Amino acid sequence: MNYKNMMDFSGKSVLVTGGTGSIGREFANAFASCGANVIISDINESTAGDIVDACRSYSVKAKFVKCNLLDVRDIKRMVTECVTAFGKIDILCNHAGFNNRKPAIEYTEGEWDKLIGVDLKAVFFVAISVGKHMLENGIKGKIINTASVSAARGHKNLSIYASAKGGICQLTKVLANEWAESGINVNAVGPGYVITQQTQHYLNDPATRDSLLAHVPLKRFGKCSDIASTVLFLASEGASYITGQTIFVEGGRLID
Ligand SMILES: NC(=O)c1ccc[n+]([C@@H]2O[C@H](COP(=O)([O-])OP(=O)(O)OC[C@H]3O[C@@H](n4cnc5c(N)ncnc54)[C@H](O)[C@@H]3O)[C@@H](O)[C@H]2O)c1
């Protein structure tokens, strides 16, 4: 093991879904800074150019591929376009997701379909599309799905989101088991509270902030870099004996 160069991803191709979101763009930046070629995919392309330019400043290849994860045909097209552009995918950060907080009895069927569609169904179809590419090409790849502490807790007003994220943890175990003998590692990262474009209104409210941090032993919210550095490790050779796991990055929230 070359410990000193463990985070050197030169020659590797990384796909990050949700790549124009707050944490996703940090993943892209982190991998590019470690020498990887990076493809970001998202439905929102407004900041894609800036993120791609920032990645290219590390002298790596970078590209944006638009995709609506609610459409399985679009997922397959997106993965094909990534493979065509970069020749291969070595690392998948299956990261896109969103949240919609309300009491369980107030959700509509349409809201269920959309939340489960992006947060669980798309995670499955992206994983199997990339997994098939890895299996067919003998790529000993790394897949890192993004779960949440909500997968391990029964927090109110998150019934659908928690169902999806809990499903991701189980999906991670099964895919890890199915693909282990082909040398593909499948793990998940489970962020705690991170202030992002999706959570800022909720987490920046002083009363909410105080009540949430009362249950976080490290007494701060997570930073995007806290999540990205864990993902880098899971994608590295240093994590080659870890598979099927969800690594929670949550300031100790789950030990309370
Ligand atoms: N921020 C937190 O506190 C927190 C905690 C736990 C887990 N997470 C997870 O981290 C991931 C990123 O969250 P974030 O807080 O950075 O949010 P974000 O909104 O900044 O990023 C999410 C990205 O997913 C994309 N996306 C949503 N629907 C899509 C669709 N149909 N097709 C393609 N892309 C789509 C959005 O456009 C966005 O860029 C999510 O999976 C989220 O559940 C976040």
Structure keywords:
Rossmann fold, 256 residues, binds nicotinamide-adenine-dinucleotide, 7-stranded parallel beta sheet, alpha/beta, 8 helices, globular
Question: How would you describe what is shown here?
Answer:
This protein is an alpha/beta fold. The chain has a single domain (10-194, 223-246), classed as NAD(P)-binding Rossmann-like Domain (Rossmann fold), CATH 3.40.50. Helices cover 43% and strands 14% of the residues. It has 8 helices and 7 strands, in the order βαβαβαβαβαβαααβ. The protein has helices spanning 22-33, 48-56, 72-86, 109-136, 159-179, 200-203, 206-213, 224-235; strands at residues 13-17, 37-42, 62-66, 91-94, 142-146, 185-191, 246-249. Strands 3-2-1-4-5-6-7 form a 7-stranded parallel beta sheet, sandwiched between helices. The mean pLDDT is 97. Nicotinamide-adenine-dinucleotide (NAD) is lined by residues 18, 20-24, 42-44, 67-70, 95-99, 118, 146, 148, 191, 193-194, 196-199.
Q: Can you give the helix content as a percent range?
A: 40-55%
- The top-level CATH class is Alpha Beta
Count of the separate structural domains: 1
Low-pLDDT runs: none
CATH superfamily: NAD(P)-binding Rossmann-like Domain
The CATH architecture: 3-Layer(aba) Sandwich
Shape: globular
Q: What fraction of the residues are assigned to beta strands by DSSP?
A: 5-15%
Summarize the structure.
With 256 residues, the protein is an alpha/beta fold. The chain has a single domain (10-194, 223-246), classed as NAD(P)-binding Rossmann-like Domain (Rossmann fold). 43% of the residues lie in helices and 14% in strands.
